[in-house]
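Database export, one record per block. Field names are fixed; values are copied verbatim from the stored entry.
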Amino acid sequence: MKIKLFISLAIAVLLVSNCTDNNPTTDDLDSALTQLVEEDDSISIDGMSDYSDSGILLVDEDEDSLLGRSTGDIYEFPIRWVRRIESVTGSVTIEAHVIDADTVYASIDRHITGTLTVFDGDTATVDGNLVFTPTDTTQKPFEMDSQRRVRFRRVGNSGILLDDWIVDGITPVICQSAGSTVTITDIHADLYDLGSDDYTNFFNMAVNADLLNTFYHREGWPHLTVMDLIRTRVDVTNSNPDAGSYPGSSEGVFMHFKRRNGFKGRRALFDDGSTLNWHGLTSHDQTENDNEFTRIWLIHGSNPNGENRPCHLLFEVIDYETLLNPEGAYNAYMVGFPYFVQAP
């Protein structure tokens, strides 16, 4: 789903784009910076919704859409779930600055509403394939709020504001439901080396109160190569007082990735302490139910025509009260950022 942000300053964009005044006003600058945000495709929450604008289901449904890892011929929690975003409203707020500043900051705030649909069902193995048969469907509305910040830098003094300023850095986006009992605390990524049969860490992100003050340049985000094997690990916390009523560590962790319009993938991470073999590799989840979720991710193809534009990655923790209790609260927390994929 292409997320569209409604920005109050957009009415001034045409005036700014034609500005040749060497003494632009603060309003001119604010409007130009807002336009830079709108035009930067790395500043997006595309991939959060499992549906396109036309209502087509985009999520890459595979065995990971069932909550839990396979144990023989059945799944521990046979459900599927999809999320449809129905409304996104928000604003870009240019933070206070002086007109001759060389660095300016902005905050992007969004309010997201939609519907979560959970399909309960039965699983069976038919001709060697796992078949999921829905037996019941439940829905619950949800609301989430997201926030990220942007840093702009002056690169010229021509008076043409869209040429004189660039987006110099963005923070990850944090998206959460009100009063969420689940959070993400750390995100790690390790590259697997077939030659040494070992992993090398290349990306870490601590999710803390300072994250919205942590700005990444374009080159600071993960740059991956087609067919790379990446071990991802996400650490979470869960303060739901009813967590003990649900199996395992009482939450699920998922990665959502949006490559382009018409394609959105979703994969589960696991906290089962398993070293499940996958094409000769193992998942390396060392301890069951310790709130550290892992997965091996085989990197998908690059963008058509070799375009070096960003894909969008969102890591999410969603608790079992949300997914397994039709009357339960909606508790979810997401951290998202762009990534780039290149040909070998």
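Remark 1: The longest strand covers residues 129-154.
Remark 2: Confidence is low (pLDDT under 50) at residues 1-21.
End of record.
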